[in-house]
Structure formats: structure tokens, C-alpha cells
Amino acid sequence: MAGVTDFTFRRLLKRRGGIGMTVSEFISVEGMTRNSPQSKRMMRFVEEERPFAVQIFGANLDRMAMASEMAEEIGADILDVNCGCPAPKVVKKGGGSGLLKDLPLLEKILKEIKRSISIPLTLKIRSGFSNSDVNCVEVAKLAEQCGVEHIALHGRTREERYTGLADWDLVRQVKEAVSIPVSGNGDVTSVANAVARFKETNCDGILIGRGAMQNPWLFRQIHDALEGREPYEPSLQDKQDVLLEFFELLREDMPELPALGKMKQLAGQFTKGLRGGSKFRQTLYHSHSADEILENIGAYFDTLGRGEDFGGEQSDSDLDLEIGSCDALSNDAGFRAGGSRSAAGAPGVSRADN
Ligand SMILES: Cc1cc2nc3c(=O)[nH]c(=O)nc-3n(C[C@H](O)[C@H](O)[C@H](O)COP(=O)(O)O)c2cc1C
Fold first, then answer.
1. Which end of the chain is more exposed for a tag (fewer CB within 10 A), N or C?
2. Which residue from 261, 332, 259, 345 is spatially nearest to 42, judged by alpha carbons?
3. In-domain check, residue 171
4. What is the pLDDT of residue 336?
């Protein structure tokens, strides 16, 4: 996820267990092939993340192939092509879900990439560009013919953006139509949900986006359930530790201000549903230094440990920030070299009504 699944976030989650594969944020082939420093940053990964996929987006044949080669050169295990992003900036130039409208171009791109790399090529698609043209089965068959080795389907059209619920019956249909592995994606936020989706669709894997921000142990819990174990239940200490570890990893990687922004982003999602979480988030959003953040985390978990409410009465009308879609985030995805940062220093954080 653009603006979210960076080097730091991926490591944090991988360490919680149950993750089969990590994927970079989507990276613009325009940025990559012009050696944009931001794109280079987005390609970083460490051994503990493997198997690691670099996801690219774009629509220029030569640049798509060149960027794929670059991903292989830096040691990625898999090259993934994004055919799902609905952001106007991306679609206008033919990339992301725009490729679902131009299958001859998609075919050329996939064949050219296949010729350029020896690591597996995978595809992430939406169910179609518009509601009147749901073509994921056709796209999946085409991709298989071009040598694509895995399809991930987010069961919404571009037109639907993030509204309604993903249509998992389409995942079942795609799985039936091709012989390569198929993963489903969309709205998986619980163990029960994931187990049901596996059963209903016979899919080979599940991709989890937003659910991972609210529950970093979700992958491990699903894995436990699939192996017949009781799903791991994180303790209060685990929850405090994950925030502290995230902040430590961020501070190793970036200056204090952007680290604070990223911290607010994860903590905002992660403390949803926790007792007094809303008040805690308000406190975090008003924290202006690393020391303040660490102090507030300590105070919050101490209060929870004592079974008390943090900051007195709970409030629902807080400053909650939502990670609603990738629309507002394409600047953070190497779309433009040196993409912009929000004033709050919170890259990729947008209002819920975005
Ligand atoms: C903030 C944000 C950024 C995203 N960026 C990407 C991206 O870079 N590449 C991609 O394939 N999908 C991206 N997506 C889409 C998700 O991968 C996923 O398909 C979608 O959110 C539905 O799954 P979920 O309900 O598990 O979140 C993004 C979604 C969000 C919310």
C-alpha cells in the first residue's frame, strides 16, 4: 500500500508472523527508470522480508520492461504489475487500473516484461475498469497466456474505488478459469472472514491491506487457524511493544518529523477499538517530539494496564485520520521524484472523506 507498506512497516509486520510474502509500495516506472531517489528508497528491502515482490505501475512498454529488469537486479524475488490503482493521476497516463481498459497494450507489456526478467511475474488486478465492463476473468486468462505466474484480484471495479464490499465470487470465477495460483483481496479483517473466503473461493492466497494496519497479528492469527491452532491473542505488552518497535525502526530510517507523522498514521489505525483509543489518538496527534510520543504511549498503556480509561471520558469526535485509498498517495509512490509531504509530516494520511 502506497504510503504505508514501506521498508519499516513491512519489517514490523513480518516479525509478527504468518506473512507469506511482502510487497513494496507501488513504484512508478517513470521514476524508477529516471533514477529518482524516491523510487530507489522505495525499492529497499532486507533479507528478513523475503520472499519480497517489487510492484511497479506505468503504461510505457520500454519503461515497464526496464523497471522490471531493475527490480530483478536489486534482488527482488518477484515482479508484480499493478493493474488496480484507481487514482486519476495514474489512470490518466494509462497505468494502474487503466490497463484493464487496454488489453492489447497489457498483453504487449506482459510479454515484454517476461522477455526481460527471469524472476516470476505476477499481476494485481481489480475486477474491471467500470461496472459495465467486469473483465477480470478475461484479463486473468490473457495474463496466464503471457506467462504471468500468479493473479491477485481485488474484487472491486475501478469505478467502485473503495465503496461497498469486494465481490469474492469473482475470485472464485477467476480461480476456476486459470490454472496458475490465484489470490483474493478485499475487506479481510478477521480470522473468520479469511477462513470463509478460502473455503468459498478455493483461492490459493489472501492479500490483506487495511486490516493489517488495524491488527498487525492478523496474518499470524489466520495462519494459526489454518493450521488448526487457537489464533494468537496479543497481550497488552505486545501492543505497546509493536508501537515502540515501529517508532524505533522509523527513527533509524528517517528524521524525527516524518517519523512522527508515520507513527501517528499507524497508531491511529492500530488503536481503533482499544479502550480509550480515541482519546489516546488525540494526544498522539498533538505530540510534537519523539519524547512526547514515547511518554504518551507509556502513559496510555499504564492506564490500560490498571483497567482505567485514558484521559477520562471517551470521545468519539476526535481527530481520526483514515487511510482511505491510494488516491491521495500517488505522490508518495515515486510518481513524481521528491513527492510532497503533508503539513503534519504524515505522508499518505488523508481525511476519511477523501
Ligand atoms: C492507502 C492505500 C494504499 C494502497 N496502495 C496500493 C498499492 O500501492 N498497490 C496495490 O496493489 N494496492 C494498493 N492499495 C489497494 C490494496 O492493496 C487493496 O487492494 C485494497 O485496499 C483492498 O484490500 P483491503 O480491504 O484488504 O485493504 C492501497 C490501498 C490503500 C488503502
1. C
2. 332
3. yes
4. 34
Do 205 and 260 share a structural domain? Answer: no
Instruction: Describe the crossing of helices 61-73 and 103-116 by its angle, rounded to 10 degrees.
Output: 30
Structural domain count, the chain: 2
Please count the other Cβ atoms lying within 10 Å of the Cβ belonging to residue 234.
15
Burial of 181 (0-12, 13-18, 19+ CB in 10 A): middle
| 68-121 pLDDT tens trace | 999 999 999 999 999 999 999 999 999 999 999 999 999 999 999 999 999 999
Give catalytic residue positions.
Answer: 85
Q: Quick one: the chain helix, strand, coil %, rounded to 5?
A: 45, 15, 40
Q: What is the pTM of this model?
A: 0.90
Of 25, 167, 326, 351, best ligand 1 pocket probe by most atoms within 8 Å of the beta carbon? 326
Q: Is 329 in the pocket of ligand 1 (CB under 6 A)?
A: yes
Give the type of residue at 10.
R
- The predicted-structure confidence for 293-326, as pLDDT tens digits, reads as follows 999 999 999 999 998 888 765 543 444 444 455 5
Of residues 182, 105, 175, 185, the one with CA closest to residue 146:
105
Say what the pLDDT of residue 271 is: 86
In a domain, 73, yes or no: yes
Contacts of 109 (CB under 8 A, 6+ apart): 59, 61, 64, 65, 81, 99
Q: Is residue 139 part of a domain?
A: yes
Cell (9 digits) for 57: 505501475
- Residue 312 alpha carbon to ligand 1 centre in Å: 35
Cell numbers representing residue 3 in the block: 504510503
If you compute the radius of gyration of the chain from its CA atoms, what whole number of angstroms results? 20
Q: Which triple of cell numbers denotes residue 192?
A: 473468520
Pocket test for ligand 1, best of 19, 127, 210 (most atoms within 8 A of CB): 210
The pLDDT-based confidence of 329 (bands split at 50, 70, 90) is very low
Q: Which of 199, 226, 253 is the last residue of a domain?
A: 226
